[in-house]
Write a structure and sequence with these properties.
two-stranded antiparallel sheet, 6 helices
């Protein structure tokens, strides 16, 4: 399970030091793509294949927008010996990542956030909102 919150800094070459705990769970290679809420999502290869298969099973007329969003920006990455990965400029631009980054485990994926956007997202998250959502989902 992908869990935890980690703060890192993007270097001049667009690299971040990816947390060892998350690297262990993601594997030697994983996929990074556009995520919802203007962040990036990183998927272990097995989870990526499940997502890909689910999208293939849907009628193309309904799924093509989602396929374009997810697959067009996707990139396969492999951490270097120091545990760094390169985030391509198109994905950094999409997520508004310039320097400070927050990387969070989100169960089946990892989310990569610009630190300012993450702080804003967390500021909007209230216990009441979580309770309402849990009720809607039947928890």
């Amino acid at each position: 399970m992908l869990i935890g919150e980690y703060s890192h800094t993007l270097d001049a070459k667009g690299r971040i030091n990816f947390p060892a705990r998350l690297r262990d769970d993601l594997g030697e290679q994983f996929i990074i793509t556009k995520g919802l809420d203007t962040c990036l999502s990183a998927y272990p290869m097995a989870e990526w294949r499940r997502l890909e298969e689910k999208l293939r099973e849907l009628p193309r007329a309904k799924s093509r927008v989602v396929q374009r969003f997810i697959f067009a920006g996707a990139v396969e990455v492999a951490p270097d010996k120091q545990g760094r990965i390169v985030i391509p400029s198109n994905l950094r631009d999409y997520a508004g990542i310039e320097r400070d980054v927050v990387i969070i485990g989100a169960s089946d994926r990892v989310e990569i956030w610009d630190a300012g956007r993450w702080a804003k997202e967390c500021g909007e998250l209230t216990a009441e909102l979580v309770a309402e959502t849990m009720d809607e989902l039947g928890f």
